[in-house]
Amino acid sequence: MKDEITLKGLFEIIKSKILIIISATVLVTTAAAVITKFYISPEYTSSIKLCVVGDFDTEGGSSVSNENSTINYVKNLIETCIETLNAQDAYVQINSNLRELNASYENTNIDSSNVRIEQVGNSNVLRVTATTENAQLSYDTCQAFETMAKERVPIIGEVQIEKIDSPVLATAPSSPNMLKNCILGALIGFVVSCGIVILIEMLDNTVKDGAETARQLDILLLCEIPDFYSATERERYYEYKLNSGTGGKKRGR
Fold it and tell me: According to its record, how does it sit in the membrane (predicted)?
């Protein structure tokens, strides 16, 4: 194993094996594209925005002291709202609402892995994102979530849910991303192939020439014996023909 290797040496190793590295990179990139295209199910995403607002009475007065305190009060309830809307019972209700929308959803089971609930900045707005393998199901899940939220949120305080942005039916899958996966595959293929090539070179103890021998052993090289080993006839080092008295037979080492 080589004790040390310089940056220039690494570059020379990569340069000498560039065809192998390129081939490995192309192979891994192709594999990533094939897996993305044929083995990863596409997913579709729809989202809806819901606003948590104060519940005002019929006389025009606020149920809290003023509008500012109402906003602050609602903001303090955002985390509670998220927990309430992300509860198991909430998903049971969502699935029930889906079946009411479409009977074909009888065996559909939406859970927390399909729905993401997040607060938009520091506002009292919630963005709900539904992701499934069916564009229509993702869209309907947002609608079912809205219905569920309007029923469940009022039980935790003097607040209610209002829709401020309707869901849109997805026309293209949100994942997987073919370009991203191919770039990632190419990067992995290049890095791994470079690493393997460099590792093999560093573990190679074969003496390449006299200069390397002199450098590694720290000796003065006076001469070198030529290699008579034939590249085309690797089973012998030299060959000669006997005199005609031998019948022209060849002998060799």
Answer: Multi-pass membrane protein
